[in-house]
Amino acid sequence: MERVTTNTRIHGLLAFAVAAVIAFAAMAVSAQPAQASDKYDYSVAVTNMYGGDYGLYAKPGEKVVYKLALRDNESWEYSNQSCTWNFACGISDVTLKGNKLVISKVPKAGTYKITVEATDDDNNTIAKDKLKLVVKKKPAVKIKMQTFKSNGQIASRSTSSVKKGQQMMLMMNGASFGWDYNNTKKPFYTWTVKNLKTGKTATWNAKKGNFNKNAFIGAGSVAGGGSPVCMGAFKAKGKYKVTAKVFHNNKAITTVSKTITVK
């Protein structure tokens, strides 16, 4: 039998982690929408919320502000080009205040498209894109765990049990980053893991994207996928209660839990 040293295991886990991050990053890039401004020199950028294909998620009745900016399609940098903003949509209570598109009262549940256009001093269109507004009462979040073999292949795509030290991923399915709006005092999401026998809790550090030092679980955040994902391993056997909390407008909008057995 081949002897596997500690260094070999560590290097293997690091290689797997790098591969997973690259894979998820590729997913994120491929998820970017085709820009309506491809035929123009500029694209419409929204600077105060998550970009990508997910749009903005909001609750009925709340106020939403889109902060608009021009992005150069060649350099992909924000532009100082002066412009006049225009919009078209089927939502009432929408106004333009400088570069801010303000929806004073979000409509009832549904998906809405807002066409935003920028024109120069000669009234020529220099950028035009569609924004997506998804209105729901709250996200339908579910915690899912994947486990992996030592070679990095997926062992199980959805399970409630894992071996001590085995590589796994916790996924906050349904917690689209489109909900991450106006969280000026709170992070978008948190993980907590409680040992049901000892009562000890591992706390997620939202700024660093990992659990507290010397916790019974070691994991870090992984990019891509459209919703929060962390990858790591449990260091001790037992039963654990994993809790995911999602914030929107600085308030907890959803809290869900899942019990996991570590063998």
Key terms:
disordered N terminus; elongated; 6-stranded mixed β-sheet; 44% strand; 5-stranded antiparallel β-sheet; 263 residues; 1 helix; mainly beta
Describe the structure.
The chain has 263 residues and is mainly beta. The protein is built from one helix and 19 strands. It has a six-stranded mixed beta sheet with strand order 11-19-18-13-14-15, with no helix packed on it. A five-stranded antiparallel beta sheet has the order 10-9-12-17-16, with no helix packed on it. The protein has a four-stranded antiparallel beta sheet with strand order 1-3-6-5, with no helix packed on it. Strand 9 and strand 10 form a beta hairpin. The longest helix is centred in the first third of the chain and has 25 residues, at 6-30. It starts with 5 loop residues before the first helix and ends with a strand.
Itemize the secondary structure elements and their pairings.
Layout: H1 6-30, E1 42-46, E2 56-58, E3 64-72, E4 84-88, E5 94-97, E6 100-103, E7 110-119, E8 125-135, E9 142-148, E10 154-156, E11 161-162, E12 168-173, E13 189-195, E14 201-205, E15 210-211, E16 217-221, E17 229-234, E18 238-248, E19 251-262
Parallel strand pairs: 2-8, 11-19
Antiparallel strand pairs: 1-3, 3-6, 4-7, 5-6, 7-8, 9-10, 9-12, 12-17, 13-14, 13-18, 14-15, 16-17, 18-19
